[in-house]
Amino acid sequence: xxxxFAPSPTGDLHVGGAWTAIASWALARASGGSTVLxxxxxxxxxxxxxxxxRIAEDLAWLGLDWDEGPGVGGLHAPYIxxxxxxxxxxxxxxxxxxxxxxxxxxxxxxISRVASAxxxxxxxxxxxxxxxxxxxxxxxxxxxxxLRVPHGSKLAFEDLVRGRIEQHVDERVGDFxxxxxxxxxxxxxxxxxxxxxxxxxxxxxxxDLLASTPRQLLLMGLLGVPAGEVPGYxxxxxxxxxxxxxxxxxxxxxxxxxxxxxxxSSEEIIGPLARxxxxxxxxxxxxxxxxxxxALQPPSTWRQAPWPLPAEWT
Length: 314
Description:
The longest helix has 16 residues, at 15-30. By secondary structure, the chain is α/β, with parallel strands linked by helices. It has helices spanning 15-30, 51-62, 85-97, 108-114, 169-172, 187-197, 213-222, 256-261, 266-277, 289-294; strands spanning 2-5, 34-37, 101-104, 144-147, 154-159, 163-168, 177-179, 202-206, 232-236, 239-240, 307-308. The strands form 5 sheets. A 3-stranded antiparallel sheet has the order 3-4-7. A two-stranded parallel ribbon has the order 1-2. Strands 5-6 form a two-stranded antiparallel sheet. It has 2 domains: 2-82 and 237-313, Rossmann fold (3-Layer(aba) Sandwich); 84-197 and 210-224, Rossmann fold (3-Layer(aba) Sandwich), CATH 3.40.50.620.
């Protein structure tokens, strides 16, 4: 088993990030497998200087080490997305050569005016405005590059936590963006490329990304990733405020560093997180990362509902 934790360095390590990091790390360690740290800094305008270093420090303080990643190296380096642009360029060229991409100079406002209103929690379905437009035309703005999603693209997988998931990508999402107009590669492409080329066997992440998984599976298939090398997935619920509202990274009291500065030990943080997620049975007051791995429960028994942050942590 080979898992990864892939934080975006837009601030200090959030409690929700630590929640998924512990689950991913423990799943690998419980099986005697390895884990990778990958820095997802491809959206450079949002990167906070020094955040990558601080996140790595907090992970190490929690006892979550990694076998490959920045500062460690490994067979699949580099592990910082901003240093992997040439790989994304090559994969985009491959898709383009197969006739699977096209430029789109639609603005978000233009798409919203034409697209059908999505149901709650769903994304706007791209209406295909530029799908058949001439590639050589005067563009209204720097174009994004979209994937020409094949008709009938039904993707299904067995999530280790949520069970069977199915999605018709063409009907639910439509032709989605691979590279933005400003040149920044989209999350769907870079994650599909990185998880497959880094030979990740299991992706553990928050369930706000559950609906995007079929897009990544579709891309892996179009890029020729063998079925046996496609990762498995385990989507865990979100950590929310005591009110049930989604946590915001700007709330300092929800970072690992702020809890650490208030005097909590790593065991006093990992214990509640591991219990809340259902990684361990019983109600131990505190646990080390190693103890969680030794007592890890099957992912099918992990929590599925959002977990409210302890009041004393806010």
